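Data availability excerpt. The first of two example chains:
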Amino acid sequence: MTIYVDAPLTPDQKELLRSSAPDEAFVFRDELAGEEQYNALLKADVLLGNPRPVEWLKAARNLKWIQLYSTGFEYYSGIQLPAVVTNMRDYYSEPCAETMIAGIMALYRGMDALAVLKKEKQWVGPPIRQQLQLLHRKKVIILGTGNIGRRVAKILSGFDAEIIFFGRTAPDALLRSPEELLQKISWADIIIACLPGTDETRGLFTRDMISRMNKGALFCNVGRGNLLADEDALAEALASHTIGGAVLDVTAAEPLPAGSKLWNCPNTILSQHSGGGQLAEIEGILELFLENLKRYKSGQPLKNQVHFDRGY
């Protein structure tokens, strides 16, 4: 069986794959050049990774199983393949949740501003104290009732935060429609978006919703950048201090263009889609892949199978 690997692996990580599955033929994209990469993918039985451009995957009709190293898969949702597709599902939930909380705490406790002052060797001291806020007992709307949203809520419960979920089907979601969300936005101190990228979530958070946010409220997004119908509207609200700040792990375009207004927005943390990262990130991906490989070879159901029609 030929396994094509399109993932950023170190030599030791490649050796881990080879030694763990010595009977399989591993082909690594970064060891090939140009047309060799494309031809190798076409011949592969199994794929580990997120290949681009998408046209390559459309042509890879020999694939029987695709293991993505991401949770999101909307980039490939328009492709009709006979292959089974699996993803990382809950794997990134904890680091993504902690990234959002870290960003919120940095803004509330002035850590972003203090980091700049340290670099500039400026001691401001007491005046900063009057600007600091507490996460304790804040009112929070979490957009999304999936794994990330639930992890965020669990962490926030330790701060006695008052939490409301937005979700279309979850039994405990108080808000179920964009109209209900719009009416409730002014209640929140913090809005945290943890939604996947689907047709229903694209452009869900509108300019009108941004205008309804409280002056000191924070907008946070660890889901998908296309949740915002108008990213410029958020930048304008931040620049004019109409809202309190933002923690953005994702943006509409990535990498964020040099000309984006978000680069110069005050009270804004851009974590550059690193929210799911951790020290042993790749090792965890390989562990799941190898477990699924054993299942695949023995005919057992694979973990984390993607259902494109459901959006998860």
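And the second chain:
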Amino acid sequence: MLAKRIIPCLDIKDGRTVKGVNFVDLRDAGDPVELAEIYSQEGADELVFLDISATEQKRKTLADLVYHVAEKVSIPFTVGGGISSVEDVDILLQNGADKVSINSSAVKNPQLINDLVAKFGSQCIVVAIDAKMIEGEWIVHLVGGKVPTERKLFEWAKEVEQRGAGEILFTSMDHDGTKDGFANTALAQLSTELNIPIIASGGAGTMRHFIDTFKEGKADAALAASVFHFKEINIKDLKEELNNQGIPVRI
């Protein structure tokens, strides 16, 4: 079995790391470059860097910030926010990103997934899906969770895989920032129905939640923000606990 990955997420707004609850009520969580360096040293397997206001404000992700983060880390690094073209991805990869994450642009133009995979390869194309439970259905949302679509989570995830994406980053908007645990039922269904890795996001609050998302949710990786940013969970301690629970991780 492949080692499970622990991935701190740096949500960036106006050059600072922020964190909210259910995608709103953001508060400052520190300098992204400093945090990235700390997580790399603490044993994180990867980092995700999301410019959460890029799509909403029609801005491009801050490539220079990506460059400075990449200078400080020695682990794979995914960048997302406002990416809508092959040119956008080319710039980010040249500035040090290992992978890119697309979300709103992929829903609006699914062919973009095919184009990016053809140019850069599946291994560096992550499709992020933000979804919320509405009347018993997981509904895909765009623009930082502000705009509901007609897309349903599982159908869209399957299409994303068919178009060649290398991974899916699934965030449950209902669980985001609540620290009540991940959306393990939905994650387990995604992991069962798809063959590409699924990254769990939204709801991490305790080490038990990570254990559960790997065992019950069958996730390949778990992403979290506030529990790491505010030092509620130490990555090294978390990995030791996962290892003790029989979950394969890189120590």
